[in-house]
TrEMBL record:
It comes from Micromonospora andamanensis. Heterodimer of an alpha and a beta chain. Signal peptide: none annotated. Belongs to the methylmalonyl-CoA mutase family. This is Methylmalonyl-CoA mutase. It comes from the Bacteria. It holds the Pfam family MM_CoA_mutase.
Amino acid sequence: MDEKALPGRLPERDRPWVMRTYAGHSSAAATNALFRRNLAKGQTGLSVAFDLPTQTGYDPDHELATGEVGRVGVPVAHLGDMRALFDGIPLADMNTSMTINAPAMWLLGLYGTVATEQGAELASCAGTTQNDIIKEYLSRGTHIFPPAASLRLTADVVAYALREMPRWNPVNICSYHLQEAGATPVQEVAFALATAVAVLDAVRDSGQLPAQRMGDVVQRISFFVNAGVRFVEEIAKMRAFGALWDEITRDRYGVEDPKQRRFRYGVQVNSLGLTEAQPENNVQRIVLEMLGVTLSRQARARAVQLPAWNEALGLPRPWDQQWSLRMQQVLAYESDLLEYPDLFDGSHVMTALVDEIVTGARAELATVLEMGGVVAAVESGYLKSALVASLAGRRRRIEAGSDVVVGVNRFTETESSPLTAAGAEAVVQVDPAVEVAASVAVRAWRADRDAAAVDAALARLRADAATTTNLMAATLECVGAGVTTGEWAAALRQVFGEYRAPTGLAGGSASGGDEGLAEVRARVAATARELGSGRLRLLVGKPGLDGHSNGAEQIAVRARDAGFEVVYQGIRLTAGQIVAAAVEEDVDLVGLSVLSGSHLAAVPAVLDGLRAAGRPDLPVVVGGIIPARDAEQLRVAGVARVFTPKDFALTGIIDELVTVIRQANEL
């Protein structure tokens, strides 16, 4: 019997998804070499990671960029960098995803210009700009401008792309970081769809496209989701996503063509769920999470990128990324998954689970829309508070042991891992000279250009921003004149202003059911009495451009529950601002959170600032993704304690903070 004729087999295999690795670091030239190696290994698309200065609209020589250049992605400061990034890579043949949000218009302008220089037709270029600013206010922190101005930029990019780059996805609604910030499946679906509604409404209401083209707009909206280890629930979530998207685009926007209403999404599986303890366990986590977005043909991702096993330790090496790519290739090419129709059609269990998520998400979406939409829900703090509360609940369950994390809160006995053996470089180390070279290069770029053309282009950008004119034309003029990333963003900052998002701390409480917290609360109160103060005061600081604030927020919530008065001013602070707040608020302890790898620059700057301000006695602790040898350097520099992802018990951390205060005051 012909094997292909077996019952249930498809007449043809489903086509594999686009396979990517999220890559970028150090410099455009180094990242270009990494791209070429990955493509040679069978990767079928590119996914560009930009460094934090690029993501937040700063040049490498800006004060806030100190320690951040090339750390979590590639620095792209101008057209020359974009040329180097894609040197020798034919963009006409490539599907490129760019994880860029606040300056998405700028990076698309750079990309399109380089593609044109290569001889590509813009209409043939395929790829994606993430361009979802809402989740930046809620979870990732690389926003620049206020919500209304940001949505205007998004709508402008959508209108431009539909006219000039019809194969491009101008927006990639990103629920990925919502899950990492604590979102339940219901919240992830509802909040992402609320964002999609805001984008579609903004495009429709901008008047830049005729009403009959809304189907074309909907067809180019893609999504970028997260997949956790509860892969059965993740399958149901993705099927629920598709059902609700079909419903919204049909009923709210009148899109009649089912093909235009198809839910199109790419995925990266959960990086923050990976553990520093027993990191080899991350391999099976990644595989299970991949199954959640590939098993169901009806809701299968069309692009997948997987993190590497060692991302809780630092920046993955090319070999680590290759391992993750091979996971995808084994599933797609060795297994028989793509030979069958949907495995879950007719499943009573799956149907009930999908219905449950759809019902809950529909109700949550209605709540957000009744508030005036997702922008109003961001500005009121409703969404952020909901995420902080959900994440606090998850942390509480992990600490209680009801949510098991193998190797962390259960089955912690372990052999030493050969993957992290002494002497082995388990992660890529970014040379500090990278930042110096990038700063020198951007100053040389500025010096070697037509200053009058730059001034004229920036003047046009500011003038157009003050009107309702689509800003893509002015942006392209800036690209051609040699304007830098920081200059483009600074011009728009002058018109739009900047935005500091709500922290959401008021909505979170992590104390329920924690028996140990009462003892810590008593120690906090006793220590305050011994110091003669009303309450112990903790400053939680996020230096530099690292916007991943989940950990800092959870520490702030638990410290508040333990009786601390918490000073938390949000993300993106200079060392000087943190020092000033510590002195003015007369705090007892400074806690710094750094997850971008810039700790060896950011932390000493705060320590030096405290000494200059006459407070060398004020203890400082640090938390983040910090290798052991870096932790020792920080302790030698004067840091009292270093906490890493293996320190998951928040109440224990708060207890240790009390000990630090007592030791600093010789109690």
